[in-house]
Structure formats: C-alpha cells, structure tokens
Design a protein that fits this description.
The protein has about 350 residues and is α/β, with parallel strands linked by helices. Helix content is about 55%, strand content about 15%. It is built from 13 helices and six strands. It has helices at about 1-55, 60-80, 85-95, 110-115, 120-135, 140-145, 150-155, 160-165, 200-205, 210-215, 260-280, 300-305, 325-345; strands at about 185, 220-230, 235-245, 250-255, 290-295, 310-320. It has a six-stranded mixed sheet, sandwiched between helices. Strand 5 (about 290-295), helix 12 and strand 6 (about 310-320) form a beta-alpha-beta unit. Helix 1 (about 1-55) packs antiparallel against helix 2 and helix 5 runs parallel beside helix 8 (about 160-165).
C-alpha cells in the first residue's frame, strides 16, 4: 500500500511539473507575441512617417516639423513611449528594414533599437543573426556590441567566414574561428589593479560562469574547475575545462597573471596531451588549450610550439571594455604580424 501511494505521489509530481512547463511556455509565447506586435507597430509608424515626409520632401525642415507635431498630438493620449525621440527611431527602423516580412519575431524593440544604430550593414547582420541563433537577451546583445565582439572575431578571421557561421552556412572548423583575442572580462566587476592572484580570477569566472560562456562564444559548456590530473605520483590541476560541441573537442584553459612564458605553454601542452590520451574519445577532435594571460609575446608562442600547431592558443585578457582606438591598434598589430609571418614562410 505504501509503495502504491509513493508511486502515485511521484506520478502526481511529474504531472504537476508538466502542467507548470505548459503554463511557462505559453506565457513565454504570449510575451514574445506582445513584443513582436510592438515591433510591428513601431515599424508601421515609421513607414507612415517616412511616406508622409516624402510628400513634403521639397522642404528640408518638413520631417523635423512633422515628427515634432505628431509627438505633441499623441503623447498626451498614448504616453511618453511615443515622444519625438522614439518616433525618430521608428523612422530609422523603417529605413533600415524597409521590408516588413524580414523582421524577426525572436527580437524585441529594445534589441532592434540597438541594431538600427549600427551603420555597417555586415556588422548589423552579424549581431542580428547571432542574437537569434544564440537567444541573446537585450542585455546580452548590448554587452556583445559594447565589447566589440564582431571586430574581435575579425582579428583572426575574414568577414565572409564570420558571417557564414552566423548565417548557419557553415560550422566553425578551427579554434581560431571561435576563440577571441583579446578576451574581455569586464563582467567580473574587478577593480583595476596592477595584478590579481590567479585563483581570484578563476573564482570570479566561476561566479560569473554564464557571462563567461557568453564571452567564450558558440557551443561551449562547462566541465570542471581545478581538474585533478594524476601522473604517476605527481598531481597537477588544470584551471578550467570546457567542451565545445561544434568543434567536438575538450577545451583546457590555464589562467596566468603575468606575461606569457615558454614554461606556461609547456604546462598547457602537457594538459592537452593528457586529455588527448586519457579523456578524448576516438571520434572526438584533438583537445584545445587556451592560455589566458595579461600580456603575450607572439614570437615566443610561435617558437615554443610546433609549426603545424593549431590547438594551443594564447589569448590576452582584459578586465575592461576595449576602446575603438585600442582595437584599431590591435588590428594593425595583427596585420603586421600576419605580413611578417607570410614573409618568413616565403623565405
């Protein structure tokens, strides 16, 4: 009798969870439906403003006057959400997306407002596609734009490859297509200090693991922290271990609070070899190693590793968002490095 009662209780609990899931999914769909109706409304308003402006295009100030007058008339009735600034966004929205059928129901108005302020069409398309593919929230999309994700990916990839992955036309084949350099960790909320202990950085990353996975990019999942590797009588501990389902490989990360050394690369290479020989399945790809450091020497990295290396990467981390000037400087540095490597290979 007790067993029957227990089974009944478990059955009811499962049933309750199913109903909860149905309600939650329905609410999510309802919210999305309302959000998209709002997007369509602002698009329609922008369309009518643009069309009306075209009728008075011989007057340069007609558009400004029209929007100002419209805001004065409708704000008292419908609220500040239809003020002059918002109506200008509506006009810009329609001009950026003139075909209504191309609007994506997965994106809300706040996300579209961010997208229409991106003037580069390729860059805008990338963020639009990835926001849909990865299910980014408005906050996450804003963070990726502010951290210059698109520009950082272009440091080690060409534009066509980056867009092809975002369009789901191809799957990333190499770590360089996913791993970013520099890696921006501003979400850790750490003060700007000369140095941090490696364990402090590691703990902060674990505390913000969802944000770190967002920064890592497509297809990553967390596996372990301080993974114990026993080699005969010696113990070693890999800082962080992830798995990437797109590359189908383990990813071992070592954190260093100093400029990179060849000893650091040797240590990471040992961890990668361990995973390749004892953890990796035969149908999986070779393990990737990422050395996160405060400063790196590309020549040291190149000489310390085999010429055909494509699994050990060094990435500089920074605890604040890069400025456009910093990124331009890094892009120029990468170009010069590429040209130097090309010249050496030619010789």
């Amino acid at each position: 009798m007790k067993e029957d009662s227990k089974l009944t209780t478990e059955s009811i609990q499962g049933f309750v969870e199913e109903i909860r899931q149905i309600i939650s999914e329905a609410r999510t769909r309802a919210v999305r439906s309302v959000d998209f109706c709002r997007v369509q409304m602002y698009w329609a308003i922008g369309k009518r403003i643009f069309e009306k402006e075209q009728q008075g295009k011989e007057r340069a100030d007609y558009g400004t006057y029209l929007i100002k007058r419209l805001a004065q008339e409708i704000v008292p009735e419908f609220g500040s959400g239809f003020g002059e600034r918002q109506l200008k966004f509506c006009r810009q929205f329609y001009k950026t997306y003139p075909i209504g059928n191309t609007l994506r129901s997965q994106l809300n108005w706040s996300q579209y407002r961010m997208l229409i302020q991106i003037t580069d069409p390729d860059k805008r398309e990338y963020y639009e596609l990835e926001a849909v593919n990865e299910g980014w929230t408005g906050r996450q999309l804003e963070r990726q734009i502010n951290s210059m994700l698109y520009e950082r990916l272009l440091l080690s990839n060409d534009k066509e490859s980056v867009l092809a992955v975002a369009r789901n036309e191809r799957i990333p084949e190499t770590p360089q297509e996913i791993i970013k350099d520099p890696m921006v960790l501003e979400f850790l909320g750490l003060e700007r200090k000369a140095a941090y202990y490696e364990k402090d950085l590691e703990s902060a990353i674990i505390s913000h693991i969802a944000d770190f996975l967002l920064e890592m990019g497509k297809g990553f999942s967390f596996v372990a922290r301080q993974k114990r590797l026993l080699l005969e009588d010696d113990e070693f501990f890999a800082d962080l271990v992830f798995y990437n389902r797109l590359l189908r490989s383990f990813v071992v990360i070592e954190i260093k609070n100093h400029k990179i050394t060849h000893q650091d690369l040797g240590q990471l290479q040992m961890y990668v070899n361990y995973y390749d020989r004892y953890e990796k399945q035969p149908d999986e790809n070779p393990t990737i190693g990422i050395l996160l450091c405060t400063e790196k020497n590309d020549t040291v990295v190149r000489l310390a590793l085999p010429e055909d290396n494509n699994t050990i990467l060094a990435s500089k981390y920074q605890l604040y968002l890069p400025t456009e000037e910093q990124l331009r400087t890094e892009i120029e540095r990468q170009k010069q490095l590429f040209m130097l490597q090309h010249e050496n290979n030619y010789k």
